[in-house]
Amino acid sequence: MSRIDLPQYLADATVAPELQSIILGLANVSADISKALAKGALAGILGAAGAENVQGEDQKKLDVIANDMIKAALAALPAVRGLASEEETDVVPCHTSGSYLVTFDPLDGSSNIDINSMVGTIFSVLPHTGEAVVTEQDFLQPGRHQRAAGYVLYGPSVMLVLSTGNGVVMFTLDQDTGNYLLTEADVTIPADAKEFSINMSNQRHWVAPMQSYIADLIAGKDGPRGKDFNMRWVAAMVADVHRILCRGGLFTYPWDSRKPDQAGKLRLMYEANPMGFLVEQAGGEVWTPEGKILDIQPEHIHQRVPVILGAANEVALCVDYHQR
Ligand SMILES: O=P(O)(O)OC[C@H]1O[C@](O)(COP(=O)(O)O)[C@@H](O)[C@@H]1O
Ligand SMILES: [Mg+2]
Ligand SMILES: [Mg+2]
């Protein structure tokens, strides 16, 4: 069976040529990253880099390698006005003629690297509307402004999941040819959920409404929900959200009292907004306890946010526990 490849899909979807060049550039570099990941210990690229990023987190060698590869690939594209990365302290100005800003999490799920488990690259493309040379201010746009968002999941197969604002599509990398081929054309998240995803080890640190909501899920058939729920936690947002796009469910990383001054663990501009764009495009919902994540006006590029996303009815109920 002949399948549509990524360039053909973008052309058929009449995606703006500059935007196409960015998506194709990210696809190409992700195929290279997947090769580096596949070599693993053989290439001496596992383990810690021995430095901290701007977020105060220990960097893995692969966080740094993937960041440098994506940065170089994007900086070579005339369409890119500037970029911002989870692993870069400041925004990086690129071409003064480019129409787009790109933000990315080069390697999501870093703690999975050393156990040969799933990781991914998450990206978001925003329009540039400011002055010639970009500043951080230019990036501070609500997620709703995104022109495209997606991720590459480095799993048993390598998949690129994308939205340009017209639904969500999934491509699988053909390792023989290096082409991403369309394997899922209409990704939809059912409104009701049978599965939830949260790091249960933090339970005692959550606010009371999250404690009650999750307790009612766990009570299953014997509790107020009257049905059983399954639980999954891959510890890579990219893989947990991928599962939700494939078979539904709810994912949350709430605020907790371990770091009370931090709004949440996940990053608004590199994780929550791009994944949120995909989830909304697939018919799901993406909230904090207060409102929709894609409507948040960012205050700085490394901002963090609590996240509740996935099945529309389940997200509404979880938010309702918080707002009662
Ligand atoms: O350590 P925990 O609580 O399981 O957190 C896992 C979460 O942290 C993250 O790995 C953070 O992402 P990075 O690996 O890009 O820092 C998320 O992908 C994931 O949902
Ligand atoms: Mg991440
Ligand atoms: Mg990361």
Automatic annotation (TrEMBL):
Q: How cofactor binds (record note)?
A: Binds 2 magnesium ions per subunit.
Acetylation keyword on record: no
| Binding residue positions for Mg(2+) 1 | 86, 105, 107
Please give the CDD domains that the UniProt record associates with this protein: FBPase (cd00354)
Where does the record say this protein resides? Cytoplasm
Cofactor entry? Mg(2+)
At the top level, the lineage of the source is Bacteria
Q: What family, per the record?
A: Belongs to the FBPase class 1 family.
- Cross-referenced PANTHER family, in alphabetical order? FRUCTOSE-1,6-BISPHOSPHATASE-RELATED (PTHR11556), SEDOHEPTULOSE-1,7-BISPHOSPHATASE, CHLOROPLASTIC (PTHR11556:SF35)
Q: How does it assemble?
A: Homotetramer.
Q: What is this protein called?
A: Fructose-1,6-bisphosphatase class 1
Origin species, per record, is Zhongshania aquimaris
